[in-house]
Design a protein that fits this description.
This protein is α+β, with helices and mostly antiparallel strands. The chain folds into two domains: about 240 residues, Clam (outer membrane lipoprotein receptor (LolB), chain A); about 210 residues, Metallo-beta-lactamase, Chain A, CATH 3.60.15.10. Helices cover about 25% and strands about 35% of the residues. It contains eleven helices and 27 strands. Helix 2 packs antiparallel against helix 4.
Amino acid sequence: MKAFTLAALMSLAALTATAQSPTERVRAAEVLRTSLRMLGSDDDARFAAFEVTLEARASRASWVQARSWYDPVLPASPTRLRYLVDARNERAVFELRSPSPGGIWFHNLTSYDASGAAQVDLLKWRTGTDINRGTAAAARSAIAGLEQLVPHGLVRQALRSDSTLSYEGELRRAGTVAHLLSYTESASQQRISIEVDAGTMLPTASTVGPNRFEFSDYRQVDGVRVAHKRTQITSGLQTNVLTVVGMDVTPRLEAGRFALPPGYVDAPAAGAPRAVRIGEGVYRLDGMPGGYHAAFVVGEEGVQVIEAPLNAQFSAAALQVIAETAPGKPVTHVMITHHHSDHVGGLGPYVARGARVVVHRGLGEAIRQQLPDSLRGVAQIIPAVAGWRLGNGTSRIVALPVPNEHADGNIAWWMPGSGVLVQGDLLYVPERGPVPAAFPVTAALQRALDDARISPRLIVGIHGRTATPSDLAESLLKAREDGFLVP
């Protein structure tokens, strides 16, 4: 068999994705069945279910979500992931526990079956008591992706895709020889390649689109060889390493293990994008794409927007609502709370219309770098410090810097004429559900308010419902009594 480079073989895999010969399919199936035996079983039914717990550590820090954009550091705590997969009955559960800068934690549970996906927030701070649902097609694709997490699941999936199997050739690298196979996963219709070491006949890597996953550190677990290390490489760069910390190859599969916990209800329809008046000339944007909020203030000369979340789709909807609420008035300024990408990803449409961006004086370059290339040179960025203000009367907006460990340069925007404060990632009160215990960043917000002698009437968050001072006090009280909100 002729040996090829990896790039050549992957090109060949793409060309042969729909033209596999019977000989290629038979050869590929033989390699996979041998690999399955080396993994621990001749019967692929034994590998139809598994439960695995992994710890993931990023290989490089993402500055667009780090505390400091110019000196990003990796999280001290790993992300923990637990998967329970029952491929035979098309169901799975995925539990995620992930840290964010400043002592903020995400802890979500997602259940998948043939009817669709359902996700809840186990800490009830981000989405409260809501159940967020996904389609059956998305659930099938997710279950297939979870099955690929472990080599025996990957091999079993490839064998089920017999009609699309192809043997691509031998891959020689650093003194080793591997069989390269490919198949089309039916739910996602993605072409997936598998490398199987020709000596051990164990899977060593898989490739899906720009992502390559390398399997290593095989150990025996109840008679099954399990790769305890999974390294992800995206577009040629190592992005994270997942380590197995728990594995059950014969998990319990009773229905209750795939069910959501009690106390959650389906989220109501968000409705159309709209402006909700929360003060004289002050509006909150509700029903927006992605479920985020923003705010805007209608002044004499124009409109000032506070926050530009997510993407251009969000801002297009915001501009439409603003035009309906304040006809003929241009957006002159966009105030940003902090540099995280989900809070500034929608700046482009505003900058393209000539709006100025107001952000903490240390974050101008972080904002510029997240704009489309065509707008970086023309963006007008105004640096703000404590007490910076714009407008008069009820439309006056004042900068209140809030030093905290989630994002350096965070500013809450205070409108003294209406008693409204707009903040990003400092106080979390979900759309529905009880007020949760605070994260440490909420104590930082309270300190900043106390130091500035500000007593807001309403506290608008980019996430969740508008809060009141009593909500802020309740959140901090729960944190003092029970400890800060952690999984």
